[in-house]
Each structure stands twice: as structure tokens, then as C-alpha cells.
Amino acid sequence: MTPTVPITIDQAWEALRGVPDPEVPALSVVDLGIIRTIEATAGGIRVDVTPTYSGCPALDVIEREIGRALQTAGAEQVEVRRVFTPAWSTDMMTDTGRRRLKAYGIAPPGPVVAEPLVSLGPTVRNVACPFCDSPDTELRSEFGATACKSLYSCHSCHQPFEHFKAF
Amino acid sequence: MTPLFTYLCRLGDDRLILGHRLSEWAGHGPILEEDIALSNIALDLLGQANNFLHLAGQVEGQGRDEDALAFWRTDVEFQNTRLVELPIGDFGFTMARQFLFDAYSVHLLDALTRSSHAELAALATRALKEDRYHLRHSAEWLVRLGDGTEESHGRIARGLEECWRFTGELFAADAVDEELLNGGVAADLAVVQDRWLETVQEVLGRATLEVPAGDQGPPPNVRRSNHTEHLGHLLSVMQITARSHPGASW
Predict the structure, then answer these.
(1) Chain B residues with CB-CB distance to A164 below 8 A
(2) Low-confidence residues of chain A, pLDDT below 50?
(3) In chain B, what are the domain boundaries?
(4) Residue-wise pLDDT tens digits, A41-67
(5) What architecture is domain B3-218+225-244?
(6) Which of A7, A79, B9, B235 could link A46 by a cystine bridge, Cβ 3.0 to 4.6 Å?
(7) A58 contact partners, CB below 8 Å, separation of at least 6
């Protein structure tokens, strides 16, 4: 007889640590903090995922890869649910994720700071260069190659770099 | 059609159509960073539209999903305001419209985060984070262009003038709004309008621009299903692939 849950919840988390974010492959979906819960169901396993941005084009791929990884790890039926509460925030990113991001050349997000509903003018953030750690950096554009990043340049080592926005 | 279905289509359609308009800037932005910014904002809006229309389809319960609603409705079935369907014009017009819409959207979504409808409130919470960022971006451009050269000031002022008569429609509450407001589902558009005007006045003040003096509209007989001739042309571009290859996937 086949057991109802062929893999444990811990094994499922472990399997998802091997699923990269397609846009920032240095990070796993667990590092990114988008996996809300993993639960055993009658026929298999259920994963709740929170989208990062409404328009994140990678979400369909991510959901498919999560299903595939869990099936490879032995889960029979996998249900991936898209949930919106609580809304994803970069505060959900793990410390491992932040270290990997920096090693990949992207300045990791700082803590999300509460701002008034309407906050005008560029936000002043202290973003250190991921290459030389200099704090002497400058925002070049609020929008980068993907919605989750902005563009900076470093005055010390003169490298342009991306910053994962605190969001 | 229930009021909730119509309400969700209004939220989805405004974002779908404006997102489509912004996507027309891809490859044509004045500078590379701005090209990327406009495409990013377009993508956020399309994602929000996707979520609102998905929920609308579920609420309707007739088996229509977000794609069916986006690609298989005709112009008179679209519930967007006329402001978002106007052609992109020059960069001044695009930014003027974007700022007026972003300010509206931030205050509308903020109210909807407190909606009694849990799923709607969750989608509004997600979208609000994005739209606050959009507003900061467009407000910054208003100040840069308004407080810039004579040429940039003139163009952004003209953009605001051209948009102004379409802004009243954003706040024109009808039976749909009233019914949902009673249940605590919808936003009170009178409150949204007051807050919107405060934001508009603050930013225009910084930008050395005047709040346009003209009537905000809409003409008394205009409803959400009334559109300018521009929407049909937009839909013909947006819908042609889906309609040429029904049921195709990639």
C-alpha cells in the first residue's frame, strides 16, 4: 500500500531549497521567502505560495517547478496554491538568501521601513556596494531589469550594480 | 451580472488598459532607464489586472477566466474609465495621465485594503505596495518636467489640461458603488476624491504647475460602458493574437 504522504514535510522543505527563482537563480524559492506553508493533505502535499509582485512573470514557472521538485522527491499529488495574505515582503527573505544575493553581486534589501501612504521624492536608502562594501553609492534608477530591483553605481570601485528593493 | 463582478471588472479593466498603453512605450522611452521603468509599471498593472479579473471570473461563476475576460469581451463590455484608454501622446501626456491615475489608485486601493471582502482586500494590499512606488515615480517626473524648462513645463501643463476633463469619471459613483459601499466592500469615492485632490495639489505646487481650472466631467449621460473611439483600436491590437488562435497556449 502506498503511504498517503510519501515524503515528510521536512523533506518537502528540503526539496524546495533546490528550486531556484528563475529571475535570480542564486536564490531558492525558500530563500526568497515566498513559501508560506507546506501541509500534508489526504492525497499528497499542499504548498501555499505568495507572489512577490502582481506582475511577476516568473510565477507560473515557479509554481510548475515546485510541483516538479516535490514529485521528484516522492510526493504523489502536489497542490500549489497562490495566496495573497499576508502580502509578500522582502522582510520574508532568509538570511541565507541575503548572503547568496550579495555573493551573486546584488545588494540585498534592508528592513522595510514604514512610510506615509503618499511619500514623494526618492527614498534615501543606505545601500552598500556588494563588490567592495563601500557605502558611497548612488541610486541611478528606481527600476532595474526586473520589478524587484533598482540600479545603483558605486563611487569607490565604479561598478554599476543592482539592489533588491526593500518592499 | 452582480455588482461585485462589475466592480472587479472596473478595477481590472482600468489596469489592463493602462498597462497596455504603457507597454506601447517599450523601446521608445526617452532614456533607457525610463523605458525600463515604464515597462516595469506596465507589468505590475497587467499583473494586478490579471488578479482582479481572475477573481471577477470566479465571482461570476460562468467559467470565464482572466483571459476570457481580457480577450473575448467587446469594447462596450469593458468597464474602464476613458482616461486610461486615451492614446499615449507625448511623454508629457503619458506622465500627466500616469500621475493622475497613480494618485487615484493609491487612495482607492488604500480604502480597499479595509474592504469587508477578504480576497479583494488581499489583492488591494498587494497592489497598493506597487502603486505607491508608481506614484513616487510619476510625481517625481511631474516636478522635474514642471519645474524644468519652458518646453517641459508647457508640455506637462498641456498633458494635465487634456486629461483633466476625464478625471471626474474616476470618482463618479453609481448604483454599483452604492450597493457595495453599503456592504463595506467598495471604497467611498467621495473620500477618495478628496484625498486625491490633496495629493494632486501638493505635487502640482512643488512642480510650479497650476491645478487645471476646467470642468472635470463626466458629462451627465456618460457611463462606464461608454468609451472613446480609441478603445476599439486598442482592443484590436490587444486581442488579435488570442482571437486568431483560440485556445492556443505557449
Answers:
(1) none
(2) 1, 3
(3) 3-218+225-244
(4) 887 899 999 998 888 888 889 999 999
(5) Up-down Bundle (1.20)
(6) A79
(7) A21, A22, A23
